[in-house]
Structure formats: C-alpha cells, structure tokens
Design a protein that fits this description.
Order of helices and strands: HHHH
Mean pLDDT: 92
Structural class: mainly alpha
Distance between the termini: 52 Å
Radius of gyration: 18 Å
Largest sheet: none
Shape: elongated
Helix content: 55-70%
Number of helices: 4
C-alpha cells in the first residue's frame, strides 16, 4: 500500500470526525464509507435528495415536534 499525506481544513477534519461510526475508525475508513455511499445512489435518489434540500431551504417541511403535537404523540 502506498501512503500519502493530504492537507485538509480544520472544518473538514471536524466534519470527518463527526462521521466516524466509532472512535478508533480511521479517516481513510470514513472517506471510503462516504465514497461507497455516493456510488450506491441512483440518479433518481440524487434528484430526490436535491428536491428535498430545496424544499427544506424554502421552508416546506414539518418538524417532528409539530407532528407529535398535532397527533398528540409523546
């Protein structure tokens, strides 16, 4: 295996740390998981995600707490 060093911002490092599934998971494992996730998405799924993000940005969503209140769920 060939090893290399890359430079990333502190913001990206924090983001990668937040994606770790367990504390000893390496950044390489985190990155591979992310690469796998994006490779598994179909074009339709990607379109759906983009549309959902647009809806959220425009305020077209209902919070879980609001639904719980509406349907009297604790």
């Amino acid at each position: 295996m060939v090893s290399t060093t890359i430079q990333i911002s502190q913001k990206l490092q924090k983001e990668l740390s937040n994606k770790k599934l367990f504390s000893r998971q390496t950044y390489e494992e985190v990155i591979w998981d992310l690469v796998e996730d994006t490779n598994e998405l179909t074009d339709e799924t990607i379109r759906d995600i983009r549309e959902a993000r647009r809806e959220i940005k425009s305020g077209k969503f209902t919070r879980l707490r609001d639904l719980k209140h509406k349907y009297k769920i604790k």
